[in-house]
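We both want to read C-alpha cells more fluently, so let's practise on a single case. Once you have written the record down, we can walk along the chain together.
***
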Amino acid sequence: MNDTPGNFLEGKVNRILVPVNFSPKTSLVLEHAIAVAHVYGASLLLMHVLNATAFVANSVPGATLEILQRSESALEELAESVRMQHIDCQILMRKGDLDTQIEQVIAEYRVDILVLGTQAASNFGGFALASTAERILRKTMIPVLTVADCRPVRKWVGEGHFHVFGVTDLSPESIRNFEYARALRRRLPVEYTLAHVLPKHATPERIEAATEQLHAVVQFADTKVEVLEGAIGPTICQASARAGADLIITSVRKHSVLREILLGHTLLEILYGASCPVLTIRME
C-alpha cells in the first residue's frame, strides 16, 4: 500500500486516481478531479474496473473482447477530454473487485489522492449496509475526495476564498485536519471553519467547555469555530451548507470514524448528504 498522505501535506500532489463507471455522474466526478489537478499541476489516472460478473455465463464468442474494447474506447474518450484541458491523463483497465483494484493501483502508481463518486443505495434508510465507498475509505491510507449526487460544481481556483469546513471530535487525530487546511492554504486563499457536534439539548456548561476547547486548538487567527447540536450527519451537512462550504474535511479510522461521534451510518450521511465534496483523511 502506498502511504503518501505526506505528499498532500507538503503540497506535492503528483497523481490523482479516478475510478469511473461511465454513469451519468462521471462527468461531475471528473470535473472535481480536474479542478484538483489544476491546483497542484497533477496528472490523472482514469481507471475502469470490469467486474467478473460481467463475464459470467457469457458464451458468445468474442463477447468478452468486445466488452473490453468498448470500455477501453469509452475510457480513452474521457481521457482525451481531460487532456484537452491541459492535464496529463492515463487510462487503466482492470478486472476484479473494485476495492482490491483501487488498493493495488494506489500502491503500484504511487497515487496521492483518490477521487471517488458515491451513490446512495435504496435499502436500510437510504444506505447500503456494506457500502463500497465506506469500505474503500476504511482501507485507503491516502486522502479520498468523494463526490455525491446533486452537488454543484465549485472550481477550486476562482474569485474569493475557498471555504473549508473541518469536523473534529477534539481528539489529537482529528485535530490534524488543520494540517490539511494549512496545506490547502499554500495553494488557495482558504477560509476555515472548525466544528464540533454535541447531542441535542446539551447544557450551557458543556457547550461553553466545547467552545473553549475549539478555541484552544485553532491554529489560524481567522478560523471560525462552531459548536453544533443534533444528529451528527444531518447537522454537519446543514451547517456546512449554511456556511457555504466548498469542502468538508473529516477523518476515518479503521473501526470508527471520529471516535466519539461518527458511528454507524453517519459517515454515509455526510458523504451523500453534503452539498460539497468531502475530503476524508485516514488516521491511525
